[in-house]
């Protein structure tokens, strides 16, 4: 099945992390999404990697849609300006909105929230609620340990084959964009 990817949800940290490569790749991804007319759907914040990817997309004329929560806004976490911003009741609704608006998912380095969002999408894959591709951006080998955990879960009989999750590891922003443009990673319900 070959479908054009028109929008992606990018999950990433609201911090920068310790390695400058994380922000460098986030910026490049935002630029490449905009240049290839792929809309960015993200958490709405103006901080850390989240703010970096959104700013880069905006600076290059991209469409940027932020989904934030009332609670996050009440904490006065700065929302990114100049975006389409939707404020929802809670995190579950936020994840659903981002899921519905996106044709694919890109996972950049991040913390427990990023991990939650990625595993939520993987769970949807497992139970057949989604067949949209997931791209794990392995900047500076950030996700290698998580990949080992997934391999361990699979070898111990708690997970199916990684192919069943439509999860793809990419190592550069250029590799990611090529996969998004090719659009060959959609799987059909089986």
Your description of this structure?
43% of the residues lie in helices and 17% in strands. The protein is α/β, with parallel strands linked by helices. It has a single domain, classed as 3-Layer(aba) Sandwich (Rossmann fold). The model has no long low-confidence stretch (mean pLDDT 91). The longest helix is centred in the first third of the chain and has 16 residues, at 20-35. The chain has a 7-stranded parallel β-sheet, sandwiched between helices. It contains 7 helices and 7 strands.
Strand order in space, largest sheet: 4-3-2-1-5-6-7
| Average pLDDT rating | 91
**Shape call:** globular
Q: Mind describing the biggest β-sheet?
A: 7 strands, parallel
Q: Remind me, CATH topology?
A: Rossmann fold
Using DSSP, what is the number of strands? 7
Amino- and carboxy-terminal Cα gap: 12 Å
Give the secondary structure arrangement, pairings included.
Elements: E1 7-11, H1 20-35, E2 39-42, H2 48-59, E3 64-69, H3 70-74, E4 84-88, H4 91-101, E5 104-107, H5 112-126, E6 134-137, H6 144-155, E7 167-170, H7 173-182
Helix pairs in contact: 1-2, 1-7
How would you summarize this macromolecular structure in one to three sentences?
The protein contains seven helices and seven strands, in the order βαβαβαβαβαβαβα.
List keywords for this structure.
alpha/beta; single chain; Rossmann fold
